[in-house]
Structures
1.
Amino acid sequence: MDMTRSPLPATAAEIFEAVKALGLEQYVAEIEGLGYTVIPPHLVGPPDLAADLLRRVCEISEEARGQWPDFENGSTHTDRVEPVERQAFLLSRGRAFERALMNPVVQTLVRYLVGEDAVLSTCMSRIKGRGVLPLMLHTDQAFHPAPLPLVCNATYLLTDYTRENGALCFVPGSHRLQRNPLPEEDFYLGGLDRVSAEAAVARGEPLEVRDPPGLHVVEAPAGSLAVWPGNTWHGAVPRSAPGLRVNLILYFCNKWLRPQEAYRECLSQAILDRNDEQFARMVGSEIFYGWGPEGTEFNAAKAFADARRRVGTI
């Protein structure tokens, strides 16, 4: 794999040609108008991809917790305050995650939203059981509510998403506000702040939860893909139904921002070797900064090798 050569940046016209080739024009229009979109399974990719991702997430859960997730009753995820299992650094945990990253639909929409300099920041999963508390509204670039997105999110829905199942939710048009939500624009938690609400739930006290103004809750089948730029307000409603909700979250940022997970340094050489140059770029092969004691280096390929050598990956 020759990582010293980079393709010329795609023009806006070239990116939109890729959007049209995949039949995604409507969904790009929704991103522009609403600040998010949900792409149906038949456009997302091979029908076996979501099933493979779900299976691997469940295997990882079983390895960590000693039991397969209970999809019927949710008995494996019952914490009152936080009935959510978090799995991180998943790109290193199976080929299904590599396929999810390199899905042409994901790659095209990430290029559309963030540009050619996008890199993977996080590949993670959430398994969510029944609970009372919502995921509060937030933006994915809370420190930089800029007019242009610096990050974006592509989330595979690995189980059916409904309100009762604790689905993702958005405030349509919030990406145009260029700010983070105010407390009065967020979920109402019985008049309590989040910390006090968590304490009340931990004590078993009832809690009144109300939606923020104008909230839209995603209703979509397993295998769908939700995509949004980093300045859109979003969260998740509580799950009231028995069972579990599962996703795979791919979070991307511009390469001059610091990724949340250190794939550039820590991803195994075997995984790099079995994938192509675009995969390598997505995990940071063209990031030349983050220098160590070896000194300043502006050659991206050498900086990439130096970073990996520093932690013993090569």
2.
Amino acid sequence: MKAILGKKLGMTQIFTAEGGVVPVTVVESGKNVVLQNRTMENDGYNAVQIGFGNIKEKKVTKPMQGHFKKAGVAPVKFIREIRLDNASEYNVGDTIGVDIFSEGDLVDVIGTSKGKGFAGGIKRHNFACGPMKHGSKSHREPGSTGAMISGHGGRVLKGKKLPGRMGADQVTVQRLSIVRVDGERNLLLVKGAIPGPKDSFVMIRETVKPNKK
């Protein structure tokens, strides 16, 4: 599996040779640095810890300062662990660039969706509106939350769809194609939209093909 960390710069469009318009998201990846190796002998699984993004040293905690010092690399802001079967091929301090991907590759993009704050049931769960006439007092209020449970008193069951915090969740968009790889500027152009606002961090990994029986 191939994977890399990056920062979402925004969306734009490019034109094909036939004159078609392709909407793309521009992701700046730069050079991902390998911070640590996880091995089956020591950790029970094979993985590589990689980091991306600049951060001031004064904003790094002392435990993380020791972690970066042990790896012999400058502090990074965004750190993720990627499980790889060939993790032993990567050494601490190695860099991973956008050239691991090629045009036409299918990838999954993992990011944190935009936070919407506190939202009502209509916006959050697509509930229907109440009567909109002047006499109604429940234009956008939720209706019944369910019947009382016999012998247990009235209560709302866990997991009930209600108003609450919306967004700011981890979201994975699968099977997006790489439209262009710009190694000079460390950019990846991914077809379509990906999760998160501008300047948010994302992880791009190779789409795993399902096993056909």
3.
Amino acid sequence: MQFWKMNGAGNDFVIINNMDGNLPPEVYSDMARTVCERHLSVGADGFMVVEQPRKDGDYRMCFFNSDGSIGEMCGNGARCIGRYGHENGLAGETQRIETTAGLVISRRLSAEQYKVRLNDPTTMDLDRSITIRTGGEDRSITCDYVELGDPGLPHAVVPIKGLADYPEQELFELGRAIRWYSGFPKGANVNFYEIIGPDHVLEKTFERGVEGFTYACGTGTGSVVAALTAKGLVSGEHVAVDMRGGTLFIDIGNKAPAGGLLSDVFLTGPTNIVAVGELRDQNVTGLIG
């Protein structure tokens, strides 16, 4: 079975093509857990399967987190799979990618740079006060809760002063507590941020399904900039967001709709093909017979 290993700003993925339908979908989750296990297999933050489209897309992207749970969508994954689709002749320079959360449009800007239109925000609950428990004590924080797409991909957007030097273990415990906050119906990806300059943001994301910090999170970046734009703290035009894996850029086309949610959120950044090869992991071949 051929696989591609790719990353977008350090957010890494294993991709396989199931356009011919030879793999039964019921094995996807177990495959994701097996293939994404670092040291024991290829290792990745997420696992993506390319399928035939069900509606009017060029193809369908099935996304799984490294723990085997289904992800509604993944921004960096969509940019990577856009390059995969282009280089494998599945579509042209502009692609229509079906996801669980809705249709995503991908556009090739150069050999490495890809831009995707993320799912529009369907929920934006700004300046929400929540109470979590860390270190045996209750702690009240203020955050923004954003969902992208339908069904919505949930994100908590949390300001942290001095984020670059914030103690790593303390931030991890805080991220885990917010991720499992009972008031978030599906849990949440937790995006810590600090504004470090005009239209310039630092971000660290604790990802649901990975249960730890990743090098980058595309939908998280879109959610952070969407919330900050709605509150007038950034312009929403080519906002730079620095993460451990690099810098991503967000542009919001519809920033001030009358009586509604902002929309047309675009994510731009690099893609990298790490490896193309044959997946021979015996734990995987045992799943599919």
4.
Amino acid sequence: MKIYHLIVPEGAAGTRAEVCIARGMPLLPAYVIREAFKRRDVKMNGRRIDKDAIAEEGAQIQVYTAFSPEIPIVYEDENILLIHKPAGLSCDEDGRGGMTALTLMQEHAGERYAPRLCHRLDHQTGGLLLFAKNDESEACLLQAFRDRMLKKVYQCLVRGEMRPAAAVKEAYLIKDADRAQVRVITHETPGARKIITEYETLSFDGQVSRLRITLHTGRTHQIRAHMSFLSHPLLGDDKYGDRGLNKRLKVNGLRLWATELTMQAGGCLAYLDGRKFTVEPPF
């Protein structure tokens, strides 16, 4: 029997426990959650609850089940492991508890190797996530990420029509660690780091634009904060976005996905240089 943990996030108070679990544990199918409730195998703060119980902000929910979730493997060889991470799954331990991409890949690896996380995606962001499988490939990938050699491309949905339809935008970002968020400004100032975000409009339906985003710098919440600063916040973003629009459009979950990764690491991974991996976003 496995135990999966979930910390009820800010803003989720008042949500039914069943809904909260479905959002916070994206790899547990609906039937698994229903069966856990029927068996009385769901607890909140140590007390058994039913599916209609109301989630309390900051509470710990535990789901007991024999189900073992799997993450789609996009590519794997003797050096690297590339997966398609779902939204709502943390890359590694971040205080929310429960399953993470790293722990699931450790289960996948068993005793064969120890997967090493080489970069991260936000908890709410899904898409391509890369692991190294040995010391040599880890060193190679970490250096490639530091040197901005690997090209990462995202897709997102934003409010309004982008004008111009494509551009490269520069600004400065200040991180507020205490509030776990960032602020974007136009000018250089002590503590601010330069950000460069390139976007291309793929479509516009009269209200929402679909963008292809290429990061030339990789800062915390860069896409979310920069697009909000440009007056085009991402759909489903309650931290930097338009909550009213999210509510009107009934958008649950951040509309941001890591859709492309082009390898360019050299060294022991030179055989993969120039190879592009892609996935489709679910929105």
